[in-house]
Amino acid sequence: MAGVPAIHGIIAYPITPFGRDGGVDTATLTMLLEKLIGAGVHAIAPLGSTGEAAYLTEDEFDSVVDTTVNTVGRRVPVIVGASDLTTANTVRRARYAQHAGADAVMILPVSYWKLSIREIAQHYATVAAALDIPIMAYNNPATSGIDMSPELLAQMFTEIDNVTMVKESTGDLDRMLRIKELTGNALPFYNGSNPLILDALTAGASGWCTAAPNLRPQPCLDLYAATQAGDYDAAKAIYEDLSPLLRFIVAGGLPTTVKAGLNLLGTHVGDPRPPLLPLDEAGLDEMRSLLID
Fold it and tell me: Which of 32, 62, 108, 273 lies most in the core, judged by the most C-beta atoms within 10 Å?
């Protein structure tokens, strides 16, 4: 894994835009990626929950990978969300991302049946054995139904060479601190809980995985810069300004709310794919007040 760029800072999750025919709109995706990179984000992470990876065909998944890697062109790291219900297709997606030129993959364990610790560890070990690039282990029980303890994450970091990062989205700062303690601060953790971001960065998170830069990139970048400079008062003021939007997009579902925001700002990205639904009128009014009014 020599030569893999350091991953830090604002890790932006692009949405997957759909055209009027319902398919992936790669031209609009390219434009959105250029805007994110132009704004100054530090990494791009397509095909997570924000990117509706669970609702894409494999051809569509591959198209988003290719478009993202080719557009980014090594200007910042690309971390592809490669999770799937089966280990076999997680391996397929992760291998495709590696061959396309991704710098890392992000893996969320998902299963119809609740997985045991042994099954989770084997899932990651099997994916890792098929790859030469790093894996960001992603813990988000709210979406996956599976909660990985700090102890399990530290164990996989020790036993599986490619597991080199953790994205923790439970909103529990104690978990992040426990990860640091168990690994002697060797395992980088990334915050995936928007409401926790100020505390997480202050506590030493290596970065913030967020969809917010699709709508308001500059405050996200300013918040990260302020925490890195040790200016807590400035960071807190930025967070207080940004927090109503952060709370709203999380509560309303990231694909639904971020797509609604982009549509309101004049970039047609389509609606989320069913069973997800677009924002209702009350939600659109609130989003409009947060972004425009």
Answer: 108
